[in-house]
Amino acid sequence: MSSSVSSGELTTADGVPLKVSLRRAVRRSRLKALLLVAPLLLFLVIAFVMPIFDMLSRSVANTEIATHLSRTVAALEDWDPRSDELPEEPVYEALANDLAEGHENRAIGRLSSRLNYEKSGMRSAVMRSGMASRTMDPPYKEGLLEAHDAWGDLETWRLIKRESSPYTLSYYLAAIDKQYSPEGEIVDVADDRRIYQGLFWRTFWMSSVITLLTLVLGFPIAYLLANLPLRKSNLLMILVLLPFWTSLLVRTTTWIAILQSQGVLNDIMVVLGVIADDARWQMIHNKLGTIIAMTHILLPFMILPLYSVMKTIPPSYMHAARSLGGKPFLSFRRVYFPLTIPGIAAGAILVFILSIGYYITPALVGGQSGRFITNYIAYHMQTSLNWGLAAAIASILLFVVVVFYLVFNRLVGVDKVKLG
Amino acid sequence: MAIPSYATRSERIWHYVFRGLCALIFLFLIGPLLIIIPLSFNAEPYFTFTREMLSFDPAGYSWRWYEDFFTSSRWLNSIKNSFIIGICSTLLATVLGTLAALGLSSRHMPARGLFMALLISPMIVPLIISAAAMFFFFSKIHLAQTYLGVILAHTVLGIPFVVITVTATLSSFDTTLIRAAHSLGASPQRTFFKVILPLVTPGVVSGALFAFITSFDEVVVVLFVAGPGQRTMPIQMWSGIREEISPTILAVATLLVILSILLLTTLELLRRRSERLRGMTPS
């Protein structure tokens, strides 16, 4: 057709070639779409993405020593950390000046905490020497050695030399129970100080148990809902959605009321004579409490994706399997079950991701033994104030979550997520 | 799910066993929520049923924890804070999220999957990590311990819900309706107000409700970002559970269960309305 047009090209009424016009229209609508997304994107970058990157950078930031011991670090330039001799007098003089200044502008507290993370006892060494260095006369080496014997320890100097760069991996090492040896090699920390590897594993295995339990409990419910007539299943669906919509704190509180030793369940058991009054079950403030409460809280997140997949499986498949002679269990295992695997994957990944990042419930019902790694992020944020370590643990957890999120996105697609 | 006529005896037994199992799981889901309602009327400061309560003696029941709640300035103040923060962050999240959803539903949106993954990420990133990150960053830019800081943080958390619900509504939106309206002589404005808006509104409203309840129930971020001036109701409950365990918390919990029942009903009505408007058979 187009060959019959004199110019050889189709044009719009005002003479623009059709191709150009179409391209222009597509470009315009693409721009419009981007402009609509732009405000939200900008907002999220400022209020969410930048904070996350700020946290990631904090997990490797190491400014305290480079800033507050700048003269010492410069003077240590020529000192060989492998030598068996203490640094010379100029280094001690620089240190005394740095500490005196730190004492003056109150930066010494942060410096001492930072050094103390690496080597215990450094807090008092820095604080005491800071006080002494204000009135110290040369020779500084003798003065400082007298103020605290940490300055006569080669390890101290190797530590300062090693941690003088503006970035460090030591928070990440601490987050997986490793540390630098005095020789600068990465080694395990002493057995009695190992906690984080165990915590990461506990978080992962307890989350796996919770995921498995939600699957075992959620599968029959999803199956029932998907196979009942709509009117009935909508009614029962409310029983799934109501807990989903109820405040997390309410659901945690109610488990405290039920499970605690003077709680409802123990009282019933005592009244029924199953247990003696002085032998009440300890079901809360331990692993069991965390697992029960979190299984309850996360169960709807398993049921909903399972249900939406089972809803799409035609009942005729099972009828066909039965009419071809399959026994009920065999038909279920070979025909129905394989079709539900996408739903199982979606629900399991979702529950697992949510579970390893849970903080509130383990903190309230977990006691000492049922705590998750998240509780230690909060501990270092609020109590020990070791923010670098908090950021490093959070970054490791974030990495794990992002990996699972990408898998989830690949398998299910985030835009397929349904909310009730 | 009815038993087919050809079912064997063992299948019939399994059918009832299965029903029984499902009933038990439903009890596990809903029982704990129902149990706190009578407990919140306990006349004694215990978290369990007293002898008087079990024998339905009126003396065992009282409104004292509700009175305690409604006369405590700390609780009332925390409710006020929760509403201020919840409403502001919901408005912000709804406006930003709806605009973005409109863009994302466009056929010509480039890198749709990538943007979607990014916009939904606040829902996936563990709250403690978001909270820690926002605490560090907001402290730097002097937003920590302010209403604005908490509102912005809750807006971030509410956005994924708005984006998900509104894009879901838009993806099932039948664009031939627009052309039909035009061909029947409606002006673009009239088409927008009479056709597009009524069909999209239920999605936007349920997105807004999701965002509101997210903010209303959020503890972790408030714990880190807010100061003592912005204590919200969940924070009050959190410290109540940790420090002075009193059944006032059960009264609050009962009120919150009622709130979630109301919310769920609203959402269900919205869903039915939107299905009716689309000409789908109501389920």
Automatic annotation (TrEMBL), chain A:
Membrane topology label: Multi-pass membrane protein
Domain of life: Bacteria
Primary localization: membrane
Locations listed in the record: Cell membrane
Keyword terms, alphabetized: Cell membrane, Membrane, Transmembrane, Transmembrane helix, Transport
Transmembrane spans: 33-53, 204-226, 233-250, 256-276, 288-308, 339-365, 385-408
Domain ABC transmembrane type-1: 200-408
Single GO cellular component term: plasma membrane
GO process terms (BP): transmembrane transport
Pfam families in the record: BPD_transp_1
Family: Belongs to the binding-protein-dependent transport system permease family. CysTW subfamily.
Protein name: Putative spermidine/putrescine transport system permease protein
UniProtKB/TrEMBL annotation, chain B:
Domain ABC transmembrane type-1: 79-267
Keyword Transcription regulation attached: no
Gene Ontology cellular component list: plasma membrane
GO biological process, one term: transmembrane transport
Pfam families: BPD_transp_1 (PF00528)
Transmembrane segments: 21-41, 83-102, 114-138, 144-170, 191-213, 248-270
SUPFAM superfamilies: MetI-like
Subcellular compartments: Cell inner membrane; Cell membrane
Keywords, ordered alphabetically: Cell inner membrane, Cell membrane, Membrane, Transmembrane, Transmembrane helix, Transport
Database matches in PROSITE patterns: ABC_TM1
Membrane topology note: Multi-pass membrane protein
Family in the record: Belongs to the binding-protein-dependent transport system permease family.
Protein name stated in the entry: Putative spermidine/putrescine transport system permease protein
Organism (species): Aidingimonas halophila
